[in-house]
Amino acid sequence: MNASTTAPPGAAEPLPLSGGTLALLTVGLALGTFMEVLDTSIANVAVPTISGNLGVANSEGTWVISSYSVASAIAVPLTGWLARRVGEVRLFTLSVVLFTIASAACGFAANFETLIACRLLQGLVSGPMVPLSQTILIRSYPLEKRGLALGLWAMTVIVAPIFGPVMGGWITDNYTWPWIFYINVPIGLFSGACAFVLLRGRETKITKQRIDAVGLALLVIGVSCLQMMLDLGKDRDWFNSKFIVTLAIVAAVSIAFMLVWEATEKEPVVDLSLFRDRNFALGALIISFGFMAFFGSVVIFPLWLQTVMGYTAGIAGLATAPVGLLALVLSPLIGRNMHRLDLRMVASFAFLIFAFVSIWNSTFTLDVPFNQVILPRLVQGIGVACFFVPMTTITLSSVSDERLASASGLSNFLRTLSGAIGTAVSTTFWEDDAIYHHAVLSESVSQYSQNTNAYSDTLSSIGLAGQAVTAQLNEVVTQQGYMMATNDFFRLSCVVFLVLSVLVWVTKPSKVAGPSMGH
């Protein structure tokens, strides 16, 4: 493979690409990233269909999602270590090709066990794709246009998880579930071919590092148990389940030992010394909490629309999608002009937009019309564009080129993990808070309440009686309870975003951090 030629020691950095070659490479890498990120969410809405088709319960069917997320969570932080041993170009190309093969195998799976095995393989080989697409794209652009490269990369990471459920639902409804995997094949072949042909002779330096077996084992055990706990905790009533408690203990012990081991290991699988860099440590922290709160809203918003407002999955997806519109337009624009901007001000503005949208969402009632539902999502797109690109730039602004793959892999791992935590925390809070409000509101529903009697009389006038009236009253209270829980969730999110809008000023990116990231 010519693209995988090992760079000789002391060799000069390859010149940036330009013209049609750079444009084609950008499209190829972007599609590879889009494909990988899309697969984290596209199968979610298809779980009931897959479960029924393969003869398993819906609770078992969720392993289609969990198996992928667990395997991917293990592989992402290994990106830097693998890239040093294999080379970034070779590793990215190999990952894309294997991911494409695994996708096709998922579609051909004849039984549930085979599908889960293929999803595990998909997750394992997907880990390096997102962080390496980022680092390769940055290195391929001229120094003054690296901000634009990051903006273009961010578009795919932002849009893919939003459109995943929409595409998954449409494909499942109009075709068959295997096609949610088959669509990866042409995309993966194109992306892999672009990397193989256009990156010839641009391989990074390869170092023959020994395998840190202890660190690797602790990472695999700790991260897989943590991800499984987050994925399965809600369905198993969290720490009332012995299985979840066991997972939590094993994850905590393994990760604690891993941190101690990796801090003293000469050739670690995860480079924890990156956290000595002020911008990386603070940037990764802010991105993690920001993405946790943001992704929580991405999960709660369609849940509220479908379970409370009665929207179909397709309509809920359309209501969610506008967040990507302004993000698509603004991300490259912000990336192109980052060297002219104070990145902290842009990121702080993003968090203020998120806070404003959260407060806006918290004012919704059960009779809010569709056009008012989508407006906050449209405005939120401004915050999305101003959040991901500047914060990623701040995080990597002080990292040297040779450590860029490690830093990108570690920061993307923390972002992915924070999304899983945000999903688990937000859905648990939402349902528990709804139960609380249901209990409080139920105290007002009695035969001595004038409002209750008036509503019961209205139900009786349309032919309902006895248990039917009670059931309808309970349904109304349940809807109001979930509506109040949704409002509470967005108020809490607003507080988180306001705190982050201040915390971002603790970072100290250099004046030229925008275009020269990682240099």
List the helices and strands and how they pair.
Blueprint: H1 19-38, H2 47-54, H3 58-61, H4 63-75, H5 79-86, H6 88-108, H7 112-126, H8 129-140, H9 146-174, H10 179-182, H11 184-198, H12 213-232, H13 242-264, H14 278-307, H15 313-320, H16 323-336, H17 343-361, H18 370-396, H19 404-442, H20 450-461, H21 467-503
Helix pairs in contact: 1-8, 1-9, 1-11, 4-7, 4-12, 5-6, 5-19, 6-7, 6-8, 6-11, 8-9, 8-19, 9-15, 9-16, 9-18, 12-13, 14-15, 14-18, 14-19, 14-21, 16-18, 17-18, 17-21, 19-21
Radius of gyration: 24 Å
- CATH architecture assignment of the largest domain: Up-down Bundle
Provide the residue-averaged pLDDT. Answer: 80
CATH domain topology of the largest domain: Growth Hormone, Chain: A
Tally of separate helices: 21
Counted beta strands: 0
Write down the CATH class of the largest domain: Mainly Alpha
Written account of the structure:
The structure is a single chain. This protein has 519 residues and is mainly alpha-helical. The chain folds into three domains: 1-7 and 15-209, MFS general substrate transporter like domains (Growth Hormone, Chain: A, Up-down Bundle); 212-266, no CATH class; 273-519, MFS general substrate transporter like domains (Growth Hormone, Chain: A, Up-down Bundle). 73% of the residues lie in helices and 0% in strands. The chain has 21 helices and no strands. It has helices at residues 19-38, 47-54, 58-61, 63-75, 79-86, 88-108, 112-126, 129-140, 146-174, 179-182, 184-198, 213-232, 242-264, 278-307, 313-320, 323-336, 343-361, 370-396, 404-442, 450-461, 467-503. Helix 8 (129-140) crosses helix 19 and helix 16 packs parallel to helix 18. The protein is globular and about 80 Å long. The model is unreliable at 1-11 and 512-519 (pLDDT under 50).
